[in-house]
Amino acid sequence: MICIVDVHYEPDRVTAAAVGAEWDDEIATIEIVVRTKGPAADYNPGAFYERELPYLLAILERMPPVEAVVVDGYVWLGPDHPGLGWHLHRARGGPVIGIAKTQFAGAVSNDVIRGDSHRALHVTAIDFDAVAAAERVRAMHGEHRIPTLVRRADTLARGR
């Protein structure tokens, strides 16, 4: 099982979502949503992980052991420049795969084109072969650029 996580911020609360399933599943086996009252920490450019990491760690405590955690963002922002996924790995261990929707200048990623889209997803990983991670993302369920379960985690985090 993998766990796909996402966090959404509103002025008065933060919502974290976790979706547990097998790589190629269409429907999640486990869905967890945690809402925290109050504003999130301020966004700190270059240290996005400081804002997001506490919510990811809290929701992952509620999940059973998984093969890998998939985050909305990068594991590596560039050589010797760790991203959110690296910080999550450092905090809890285990494989982490990052799926980013936008290119980050200087980031080295394995780009994946899915469906009819011409825009790549940018896949990075730690403690998991990066090429294999990209292939797994490419093969995930869904006809569109964003895999079905990644979209589901986003939808849950947004409260829809």
What's the short story on this structure?
The protein starts with a strand and ends with a helix. It has a seven-stranded mixed β-sheet, sandwiched between helices.
Can you walk through the features of this model?
This protein is of the alpha+beta class. It has a single domain, classed as archaeoglobus fulgidus dsm 4304 superfamily (archaeoglobus fulgidus dsm 4304 fold, 2-Layer Sandwich), CATH 3.30.2170.10. Helices cover 26% and strands 31% of the residues. It has helices at 48-60, 84-92, 130-139, 148-157; strands spanning 2-10, 13-21, 30-37, 68-72, 76-78, 81-82, 96-100, 110-112, 121-126. The strands form two sheets. It has a seven-stranded mixed beta sheet with strand order 3-2-1-4-7-9-8, with helices on both faces. It has a two-stranded antiparallel sheet with strand order 5-6. A hairpin with an 8-residue loop joins β8 and β9. α1 (48-60) crosses α2 (84-92). The radius of gyration is 15 Å and the shape is globular. It starts with a strand and ends with a helix. The mean pLDDT is 95.
Features of this protein?
alpha+beta; 26% helix; two-stranded antiparallel ribbon; 160 residues
What count of domains describes the coordinates? 1
In terms of DSSP E residues, the strand content is 25-35%
Q: Which strand order do you get reading across the main beta sheet?
A: 3-2-1-4-7-9-8
Distance between the termini: 24 Å
Spatial shape: globular
The total strand number stands at: 9
State the low-pLDDT regions, or none. none
Q: Mean pLDDT score, rounded? A: 95
